[in-house]
Write a structure and sequence with these properties.
This protein is of the alpha/beta class. It folds into 2 domains: 2-156 and 313-344, Quinone Oxidoreductase, Chain A, domain 1; 159-289, NAD(P)-binding Rossmann-like Domain (Rossmann fold), CATH 3.40.50. Helix content is 24%, strand content 26%. The chain is built from 11 helices and 17 strands. It has helices at 41-47, 97-100, 149-152, 158-168, 184-195, 210-216, 227-232, 250-254, 277-281, 295-307, 322-330; strands at residues 2-7, 16-21, 29-38, 64-71, 83-86, 89-91, 112-113, 132-136, 141-142, 176-180, 199-204, 220-223, 237-242, 257-265, 286-289, 314-317, 337-341. The strands form 4 sheets. Strands 3, 4, 5, 8, 9, 16 and 17 form a 7-stranded mixed sheet that branches. A 6-stranded parallel sheet has the order 12-11-10-13-14-15, with helices on one face. Strand 14 (257-265), helix 9 (277-281) and strand 15 (286-289) form a beta-alpha-beta unit. Helix 4 (158-168) packs across helix 5 and helix 4 crosses helix 10 (295-307). The two termini are 15 Å apart. The structure holds NADP nicotinamide-adenine-dinucleotide phosphate and zinc ion.
């Protein structure tokens, strides 16, 4: 079927309305009538070429919420009318050790991203800035009724990308967790870490968003532009989640870890992040990375967010405002996630 979408025609070019082809609904597929699509900084990295050449035109969008419009004959876990979500991943081999362990995002055969990659059937995936999408039912999440659909969309990437490392490194009561960067991922990290019972500190470029940070669940808030911050917080944190989209001096942040602490990078800047051995040696510290999360963990995260009343703070925009929204994200002027109302696309 032909559907309307917003696509980047080439690297660094503004997105424009177009039509794309969606595959027929196969036996294990779900056709989703998309309602909301969040704007992740990864969409911007991708279309700007930060991560290398892309198969343009690219329809970004991997924070998708909508309603099931049709299901294939073999689908049992979703029904027409259900509210569902799709995140960053729409396929994987299902057989390798990582897939079998529920870490489909680390599929040894290569997980299939929601857009701009070759799917297992040889077609190129196209994302959620669109009216409809067809996705294998195994990669479609149930969005609990208690969640507002616009506020739920960013959970499909920003939510799981922060929930996964917070759970993996046991953020909870008695743990001191710092979140670097209060953007889309950062604000979800603050909410989730607080809900898990950890003591949360925000490390932001300035104090401009301090009031918001404390309202979202942070206990403390510091400006990284103030050198005093790095003196005061030296050796303090059990876990630091770095969500910054640009290369920062990770050595300065590693020194804020307690002995055995971990700095986990979820930000994916184009430039390398050089680490001095001494930053790790001088405290038995770890520097780690984490990419989204498996399907079962994503469902657990959605259920956790529904139970704790957590959604993203969103600014809902019409599709023709997407290029302006990109500029604002690049200027760290997002509070805290832009979400496209996809009913404005047609
Ligand atoms: P975002 O909304 O733009 O937030 C990034 C925040 O980083 C900004 O709001 C800003 O916070 C801070 N920041 C930006 N530029 C900075 C600079 N030059 N120096 C210091 N701080 C800076 O982006 P996002 O959507 O949360 O995504 C963040 C990063 O995570 C991106 O690189 C994205 O590609 C990546 N990502 C990774 C995964 C994964 O699976 N690992 C998943 C999704 C996204 P303050 O104003 O508070 O300083
Ligand atoms: Zn994302």
């Amino acid at each position: 079927m032909r559907v309307t979408a917003y696509a980047a025609p080439a690297a660094g070019q503004p997105l424009a309305k177009t039509t794309i082809e969606r595959r027929d609904v196969g036996a294990n597929d779900v056709l989703i009538d998309i309602q909301y699509a969040g704007i992740c900084h990864s969409d911007i990295h991708t279309v700007n070429g930060d991560w290398g050449p892309q198969p343009f035109p690219v329809v970004p969008g991997h924070e998708i919420v909508g309603v099931v419009a049709e299901v294939g004959s073999d689908v049992t876990r979703h029904q027409v009318g259900d509210r569902v979500g799709v995140g960053c991943m729409v396929n994987s081999c299902g057989e390798c050790v990582n897939c079998r362990n529920g870490d489909e995002q680390y599929c040894l055969d290569g997980m299939v991203g929601t857009y701009a990659v070759t799917d297992r059937d040889g077609t190129t995936t196209q994302g959620g800035y669109s009216t409809h999408v067809v996705v294998d039912a195994d990669y479609v999440l149930s969005v609990p009724d208690g969640l507002d659909p616009a506020a739920a969309a960013p959970l499909l990437c920003a939510g799981i990308t922060t929930y996964a490392p917070l759970r993996h490194w046991n953020a909870g009561p008695g743990k001191l967790v710092a979140v670097v960067g209060l953007g889309g991922l950062g604000h979800m990290a603050v909410k989730i870490a607080h809900a898990l019972g950890a003591e949360v500190t925000v490390l932001s470029q300035s104090l401009k968003k301090q009031e918001d940070g404390l309202r979202l669940g942070a206990d403390e808030y510091f400006a990284t532009s103030d050198p005093e911050t790095f003196e005061q917080l030296a050796g303090r944190f059990d876990l630091i989640v770095n969500t910054v989209s640009a290369a920062i001096d990770v050595n300065a942040y590693l020194r804020l870890l307690a002995v055995d602490g971990t700095l986990v990078n979820v930000g994916a800047p184009a430039d390398p992040l050089p680490v001095h051995a001494m930053s790790l040696i001088g405290g038995r510290r770890s520097f780690a990375g984490s990419m989204i999360g498996g399907i079962a963990l994503t469902q657990e995260m959605l259920d956790f967010c529904a139970e704790h009343g957590l959604g993203a703070e969103v600014e809902v925009i019409a599709a023709d405002q997407v290029n302006e929204a990109y500029e604002r994200v690049l200027a760290s002027d997002v509070r805290y996630r832009f979400v496209i109302d996809t009913s404005t696309i047609d």
